[in-house]
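Reopening this one. Same input as before:
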Amino acid sequence: MNNSATQMYALSLDQCTDAIVAYGHQRTILAQGHMGIGKSSMLTELAKRLPNHTPCYFDCTTKDLGDIMIPKMAQLEGQNYVTYATNEELGVHLNKPIILMIDEFGKANPAVKNALLRVILERKVGSYALHPDSVVFATSNLGAEGVGDMLLPHQRNRVATVKIRKPDALEWIEWGINNDVHPSVLGFVKDFPAVLQTFEDVKDPTENPYIFHPQLQREAFVTPRSLHGASDLLHARGSIDDHTLTGLLMGTVGDQAAMDMMAFVKLADQLPSLDSIKNDPKNAKVPESASATCMVVYRSLASMERSWVNAWMDYMPRLNKEAQGMFVNGARNPKYSKIDVVMSNAKFTEWAKDNTYMFTADKK
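Same output, byte for byte:
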């Protein structure tokens, strides 16, 4: 799948989710992409989009052929015969619309792959059929990653395979703001966007010390998943010393990323506290560096509540115009979880009227 056309038409997770909603009840889409980018999280998003469907997660890596169906005895008109009970993870027994995610399909052992082919193509498991409104999709890693994903031609011919691209830095930051990612991690990704580069774009693995590369087996590296793990560690910083924290980060995102991230942790210690912004916005400290200013904006977007939007709007004009624009662009993004909290505020509306020139290019 590694060719220029496939790269050009690689989908984001949102685009793949849209495709599954549209076609997943008829055809199985196989989402194939880099490790740790959130392919499995599509099941959660699909459950939100299809509230009348029950989400079902089938983990191929833990299954053998006997885990698909097991025999049981039945009787009809005095005659015994063998029938089969299906695995509950397949959701057939529910007799209602489901969203079936066949996770890590490429890593399944050959017998499991073959047993699932009828589910993938016909929506049937043996003599049992899924509800006709059910949605089925599958996930897999890239074969080039060398982690055991492989499909034979007759297996691949039963699915519509799409490549899922990595999110870029701004896309991931947008997600992180809505998902309680630590501001230090957001600031790190903002200043080091190469941490989300793909190995296909890096011929010499030493050119990017942060990412996974099949030519150089790093014990730890940066992925969206490991960045989220680093965020969890930073949120628990008060319970451990910085030496321990650095060691944990090294084992989560790799040596270079851990060292660079800790620089942002030290920088975060110099930021104005949220309480100072809430209680004394006109005198709270204003960061001196661009990186620190970004972290203040990201932290405020993630933490915003209706009770202190006014205070923020008194503080924000003290930042440079670029930082103000960064906040406003984040707040008016349709995906921002607190968009109504900010956009309905009178001071925000007044600021927008006074600064329309900053966004005229967006309307062209």
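So the earlier flakiness isn't reproducible anymore. For the record, The longest strand covers residues 69-76.
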